[in-house]
Amino acid sequence: xxxxxxxxxxxxxxxxxxxxxxxxxxxxxxxxxxxxxxxxxxxxxxxxxxxxxxxxxxxxxxxxxxxxxxxxxxxxxxxxxxxxxxxxxxxxxxxxxxxxxxxxxxxxxxxxxxxxxxxxxxxxxxxxxxxxxxxxxxxxxxxxxxxxxxxxxxxxxxxxxxxxxxxxxxxxxxxxxxxxxxxxxxxxxxxxxxxxxxxxxxxxxxxxxxxxxxxxxxxxxxxxxxxxxxxxxxxxxxxxxxxxxxxxxxxxxxxxx
Length: 257
Ligand SMILES: Nc1ncnc2c1ncn2[C@@H]1O[C@H](COP(=O)(O)OP(=O)(O)OP(=O)(O)O)[C@@H](O)[C@H]1O
Known about the structure:
Rossmann fold; 6-stranded mixed beta sheet; ABC_AA/LPS_Transport; Branched-chain amino acid transport system ATP-binding protein; ATP-binding; transport
C-alpha cells in the first residue's frame, strides 16, 4: 500500500488552475521527486499536502488517513514533516535550540510537570536530547552545535533546516528545492544526506527539485508537471528522454538535461 496517495488534486486561485487533476502515489521507503518549469504548480501541491492550502477538489491519503479531515498541526503527529524553499529558522538562536524546536511536537508533559521537573519531564528531556544528537551526528553538525544560526553560511543553514525536520522523526519528509542556493560540492553532499535519510532512518522522501543531476542521483521515480498537469512519471532517465517533458522546458531558462 502507498504511504502517500494524491488523488485528482486541483487548486484554483481566482479562477486560474494552478494544479489540475494531479494524482500520484509514493510507496514507503521511496525517494520521489516532482520536477517542472517555474510556475508549474509544484509548491502548490506541497502546500496542499501540508494543509497550508485546502484543495479545490481531490483527496490526499497519508498512511490510510484522509488528510481533508485533519488540521495542519496534526501532521507532525501523523509523521509528516517538510522544509521550505526559503529557510525558516530562528536565526538569533543556536543550532541546538533550533533543532530542539523540531522536537516540540513530541512534548507530552504538562506545564506543571515541566515547572517541577518531574521524572516524566526528565525522561522526555533525555529523549529529546537523544533524538537531536542522532540528527547532529547524521548530518555532521557537531562543529556548529552552539553557533548562532544567523552567523552560519547558507549551505549550513539549509542543512539545519533539514535537521530540524528530521528531529520530529517523520515517516515522510517533504523537501522543497533542497539544493537551491547550494554550490556543486554542497549539492553532492546533499545527495548523500538524502540517501542516508532514506537508507539509515527509513524515512520516505518526496522532493521538489530543479537540479537534474541531483534528481538523477537519488530519485527512484520522478513526476514531471507543467501548467498544473502531470506530464509523465517514470525513472529520471525516462523523464529526461520524454519528448513532452523536453517540450515543456523549451522556451524556459531551465534545462531538463
Ligand atoms: N497564493 C497564491 N495566490 C495566487 N496564485 C498563486 C498562489 N500560489 C501560487 N500561485 C500561482 O500558482 C501557479 C503555480 O505556482 P507554484 O508556486 O506552485 O509553482 P512552482 O512549480 O512551485 O514554481 P517554482 O518552481 O517557481 O517555485 C503560479 O502561477 C503561481 O503564481
